[in-house]
Amino acid sequence: METKWFAVYLFYPGDLDLMLNQLVQPFIHDFFKEGSAETYFFIRYRENGSHIRLRMKVLPETQAMLELEINQRAAGFFVRYPELTLPQDLAATTAPPGHKVVYSSYEPEIKRYGNLQSMPWAETHFCRSSVFILDWIKSRKTGASVLVQALSMHLILLYATGWEFSRLLQVCDVFINGWLPRLYDPNEDPVQESAFWLKQFELSFSPAKTQTLIASKSFWESMTEDAASDKISRYTHENKSIMKNYLSAGFEETKLTEIVTSMMHMNNNRLGISNYEEAYGAYCLRQSLDFIAQS
């Protein structure tokens, strides 16, 4: 029987990494097996309250069972981690106000990711990205930088395209130019605002510049020389397979750039990077790629 998508929105005003680790990841582990036709991905969302949108592709006859399981597990999570101050007699018996589980349909962004043929490729990327990020959150070491993790994932995705460095730098420019204006003071000249923020990026990047550039070069070489860890190698292979489909589908260069930058943005989203940090992250990525290209 054909699998179908459905979605659950898990509203929680606390640490979404905590909810991903203590609620979503164990649920996924118990009901979604590697290699199965049933799959999933998640994104973070703030509309109407901070929440995780978990999209699942399952056999229709299993949806009711999964909904019941999610409801029970979410109720338990909300009681254990209320993140709000409640009277003691209520804290142990009920979920705090505003914590809720909402079910919805899934509407694929077909135009954004190409067309009907390519949408499953994008969804495969969403799924593999979600697996990779959930594993990172679960094993994340104290002090591990989310921006560094994003840098690694972007390097993997861009490496998977097989494009020349000149084009990869153009992709970074498109990304920066798309997100940088969010930082602008609306009362100031946009050209001056752009120059101001790029200078701030340079100053912020400077203390860790040498270390970041050398580490990025080493990471890139581990992919080119097949010397990366098993996790990185597997995720790189998955990205290369997805991009191979896209590159053979006849999309124009500008559309491919749009698709790749959208994938970069959604990787940032899953990691919990603010929209206001995205341009800076891409600036660091561009500096790293430029260094690798000239080495």
Question: What's a quick, concise take on this entry?
Answer:
This protein has about 300 residues and is of the alpha+beta class.
Explain what this protein looks like in three dimensions.
The chain has 295 residues and is of the alpha+beta class. The chain folds into 2 domains: 4-104, Ribosomal protein S10 (Alpha-Beta Plaits, 2-Layer Sandwich); 119-294, no CATH class. 61% of the residues lie in helices and 9% in strands. It is built from 11 helices and 4 strands. It has a 4-stranded antiparallel beta sheet with strand order 2-3-1-4. The longest helix has 21 residues, at 60-80. The radius of gyration is 20 Å and the shape is globular. 28% of the residues are buried.
